[in-house]
């Protein structure tokens, strides 16, 4: 006799996770980032930083994270993400130093 299909609600309950968290987890596991890519889509860059798509577009629009146009496509250099995180880390460290 075939097993009944698990519903999202039953699965999230069995795992002890809210449905939205389970959906987010599945979405983040959809595609593993390709470490060989030199330039990423804005969505790929957002996943690598662990931020939302809208936040990533805002970072690109403000110039905080540099991007390039290749033909009609907008791409974020993978190295730009490392530089952004490094700059944010240094800024946070200097702020903590000023407070202490």
The outline comes out as elongated
User: Would you tell me the structural class of the helices and strands?
Assistant: mainly alpha
Radius of gyration: 19 Å
Query: Total strand count, please?
Result: 3
Number of helices: 5
What order do the strands of the largest sheet run in, or round the barrel if closed? 1-3-2
Stretches where pLDDT is under 50 for at least 5 consecutive residues are none
Question: What does the main sheet amount to?
Answer: 3 strands, antiparallel
Order of helices and strands: HHEHHEEH
Strand composition percent: 5-15%
Q: Specify the helix fraction band.
A: 55-70%
- Average pLDDT works out at 84
Distance between the termini: 66 Å
Your description of this structure?
With 100 residues, this protein is mainly α. 59% of the residues lie in helices and 10% in strands. It is built from 5 helices and 3 strands; from the N terminus they run ααβααββα. The protein has helices at 8-15, 19-29, 42-49, 53-62, 78-99; strands at residues 39-40, 68-70, 73-77. Strands 1-3-2 form a 3-stranded antiparallel sheet. α3 (42-49) crosses α4. The longest helix is centred in the last third of the chain and has 22 residues, at 78-99. The mean pLDDT is 84.
């Amino acid at each position: 006799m075939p097993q009944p299909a698990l519903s999202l609600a039953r699965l999230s309950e069995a795992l002890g996770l809210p449905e939205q968290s389970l959906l987010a987890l599945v979405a983040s596991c959809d595609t593993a980032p390709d470490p060989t890519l030199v330039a990423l889509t804005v969505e790929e860059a957002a996943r690598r930083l662990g931020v939302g798509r809208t936040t990533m577009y805002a970072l690109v629009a403000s110039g905080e994270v540099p991007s390039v146009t290749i033909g009609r496509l907008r791409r974020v250099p993978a190295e730009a993400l490392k530089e952004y995180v490094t700059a944010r880390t240094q800024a946070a460290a200097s702020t903590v130093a000023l407070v202490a």
